[in-house]
Amino acid sequence: MYAFTLERPTTLADAVKLAAAGAKPLAGGQTLLASMKLRLSAPEQLADLSGVKELAGISKSGDALVIGAMTRHVDVANNADVKAAFPALAWLADHIGDRQVRAMGTIGGSAANNDPAACYPSAVLATGATVITTQREIAADDFFQGLFTTALTDGELIKAIRFPIPKRAAYEKLRQKASNFPLVGVFVAQFDGGVRVAVTGAGNGVFRHAGLEQALSKAFTPESAASVKIDSSDLNTDLHASAAYRANLIGVLTQRAVAKASS
């Protein structure tokens, strides 16, 4: 590690001032600290957000769940409101990484980092959630913009994410066992207006699949998902899997997710 300054704000206002002055926000640190150790990131000042109580917590408001940015994965997984109203999200949180990651990682940190194989972005995008920041509200379709890239501007912090509660939903993934990130993950969410399907781990960032959404909006069955041909041309090929294998996984995992959501 190298020398840097660590600030510990206790209010959101102080955190915003530090971020505006150039401090790097530190949420759960599951990615940032590892990147700093490898010299892939070298911020001179960190703002540890763990002491900002305004950024943590879960509340149910009408047909939506509002989850504070600094809420840990383990707290999402164990929250009674989440388990009752949106069990697919609780299941996703309970299967991120390992126990250590779930105890430290945060939903806001995951969304802001936008790792192309992270689990949470698929839930945010599949539900059409709203990312609430210190400056504005951003629709999920506008928030995720590619590899480790989001709509956040310099100094802008995520305060919370507001999830509309779907009629039915499920998340399925195949773990890459060395990292515990999904090789491919698929989140399916059904609303009165149709179905949204978000895929993680397969491309340069989380994305929606229009073909699967159209088919499942007509008939929410595994057979309907199986009828959709998954194009592999824009998918990743690496040492873990080929693009063709990932395309096949998208279809298989979508079928499993639909079956789980329907059970």
Supply the key terms.
five-stranded antiparallel beta sheet; 25% strand; Uridine Diphospho-n-acetylenolpyruvylglucosamine Reductase, domain 3; alpha+beta; 263 residues; Enolase-like, domain 1; four-stranded antiparallel beta sheet; 14 strands; 2 domains
Task: Describe what you observe in this structure.
The protein is an alpha+beta fold and 263 residues long. It folds into two domains: 5-164, 2-Layer Sandwich (Uridine Diphospho-n-acetylenolpyruvylglucosamine Reductase, domain 3), CATH 3.30.465.10; 168-262, CO dehydrogenase flavoprotein, C-terminal domain (Enolase-like, domain 1, 2-Layer Sandwich). Helices cover 36% and strands 25% of the residues. The protein is built from twelve helices and 14 strands. A hairpin with a 6-residue loop joins strand 13 (194-200) and strand 14 (207-208). The relative contact order is 0.12. The mean pLDDT is 96.
Q: How do the strands and helices of this protein lay out in sequence?
A:
Blueprint: E1 5-7, H1 12-20, E2 24-26, H2 32-37, E3 45-48, E4 58-61, E5 64-68, H3 73-78, H4 80-85, H5 87-94, H6 99-104, H7 107-113, H8 120-127, E6 130-133, E7 137-139, H9 140-143, E8 144-146, E9 149-150, E10 158-164, E11 168-175, E12 182-191, E13 194-200, E14 207-208, H10 210-218, H11 222-226, H12 243-262
Parallel strand pairs: 1-3, 2-3
Antiparallel strand pairs: 4-5, 5-10, 6-7, 6-10, 8-9, 11-12, 12-13, 13-14
